[in-house]
Amino acid sequence: MGRHRNDRRFRGVSKGPIISAVTVIVLVLGVIGWFQLKDRTSSQGTAAAGACVEGDATLVVAADPDIAGPLRELAARFTETRPVIRDHCVSVSVHDADSAAVTGTLSAAPQGPWNADLGPAPALWIPATGEAVNRLSGTGAIDGQPKSVAFSPVVVAVPQELGRALTEARINWQNLPALQSGTDTLAEVGLDGWGSLKLALPTGTGSGATTSVLDAVAAATATVGTGPLDAAQAASPRVTTAIAALANSSTAIEGAPASTPDALTALANQNNPAQAPFHAVPATEQQIYAAGERAQHLVAFAPSGATPVADHPAAILAAPWVDETLSRAAAQFLDFLSQPEQVQDLVDAGFRVGDKTPPSTDWTPMPPLVQVLAPATGPAATQLAETFASPVIPQATTILLDISGSMGDNDGTGTRMSNTVGALSERIAALPNGSDVGLWVYSRGLNGSEPYRIEVPTGPMDENDRRERLETALRSLRPATATSTYASLIAAHESAVDGFVEGRPNSILLITDGPNDDTSTTREQLTSALTRAVHPVRIDVVSIDDNSDQETLQAVADQTGGTLIAVPSTQGPAIGGAFGELLL
């Protein structure tokens, strides 16, 4: 029987398919590995950037107190986005900084040092108004063109009854000084028992609106429409008179808080607005809006005419402590503020941004802006600030000028007469319209038996071309004969007492170079006549050269509360300075 052979063997599997499969697997793994490596490399790059290899950087923002609060919240939100700029991790810190104080610091030292009392040195400054930035024009303190972050119209916060009366009377910015400095002026708008307008003008925290109101009043007074007001207009007699009237009346208000927010609170809490220490305070629409129900007894009154706005311009500073990283951070933060979410937050805080306006309330009606006042130029803003800080006090002054023969004596390049007339003309030209001025001259027998002559009766500078009449009279004067000081001074003083102007200083300005040589009137008669005065009219004296009558003239000045200034010559600035001091 035959046997089958048990010689079975495994047949080999073809190597080709195995190699192919392995190759595919290797390729797939390689591709996956490549992508993983790429992702890991990318992540490592991102992590390296996020690691801020150059360290941390803080963008310090100095913002006016009226906008600093909302900006602080937005700065925290920006910081939470973990911005990286030039390999620096950037955070933003917002500090309150009074606009006027920052302006003063940067004006005095545009390149530093920074005033540490105002907080950390900022790279970005956001003042209340464009006037603050304009005052730094030409100093090199600002890098580029500032851009408004948010704006708010400047208004006058008043009790609702007063607001209705002023609105119905169509009061404009130019009317405010007269309402402030006149007598019982609110009766003219139907408010009997209110007296005159009492407009408090704060200069402390958050008081940028005061600056804007001064600009609006000045622009309206100078009739410049929507502006901007320039330096010559700001220095004009009409404008300086208006600003001085506001300043002097505001200073006379007792108990008005220095900060605008505190003044708003005090105004809203008045139980009897008609008899309150003050009736009104400049504020931004946003400040009143932010006061909420605390302002429910007030209303934002907008005088007619171009409306000033607190435009909150964001200015990147060009200072030694501001490097490229901080400049870029400032620009990026400002871009962040312009995004819709941040814009809405600013609007919710009461600001206007672009065409977005907060909802109206009973005390902030949020009307559309018809005309916007361009901020005053830098020199004009400086002039207004100086006038407000050191206001000219309008006086009622009769100038009594000696034109005796000795006034024709040579003195330098001219005569005593020509030098005196020249210096006097310059000072009269600078007097505010609110002043009352007249010109008397004296010698002997100038008007029949009288030793004096009235060239221009004393009266308001803005009536009857008084400035031109005074100038013409001065230029026509010629030296006469003797000096009759005592008799002329008695007559001028009696006339000033009879025409006494209430509410301002009244004075005689005596200008003389020689002793009284009219024996018909004695020193005792002069002293006695002055004693009988029923109103306080002081006698100021400018005594020229070596005047042997100076002791008597000093006694007269002392008796009436006046001042004697002795000048050695009419040549040079001394006599002009004396006139400036005594006339203003």
From TrEMBL:
<dbReference type="InterPro" id="IPR002035">
    <property type="entry name" value="VWF_A"/>
</dbReference>
<keyword id="KW-1133">Transmembrane helix</keyword>
<keyword id="KW-0812">Transmembrane</keyword>
<dbReference type="Pfam" id="PF13519">
    <property type="entry name" value="VWA_2"/>
</dbReference>
<keyword id="KW-0472">Membrane</keyword>
<feature type="transmembrane region" description="Helical">
    <location>
        <begin position="12"/>
        <end position="35"/>
    </location>
</feature>
<dbReference type="Pfam" id="PF13531">
    <property type="entry name" value="SBP_bac_11"/>
</dbReference>
<protein>
    <submittedName>
        <fullName>VWA domain-containing protein</fullName>
    </submittedName>
</protein>
<dbReference type="InterPro" id="IPR036465">
    <property type="entry name" value="vWFA_dom_sf"/>
</dbReference>
<feature type="domain" description="VWFA">
    <location>
        <begin position="396"/>
        <end position="582"/>
    </location>
</feature>
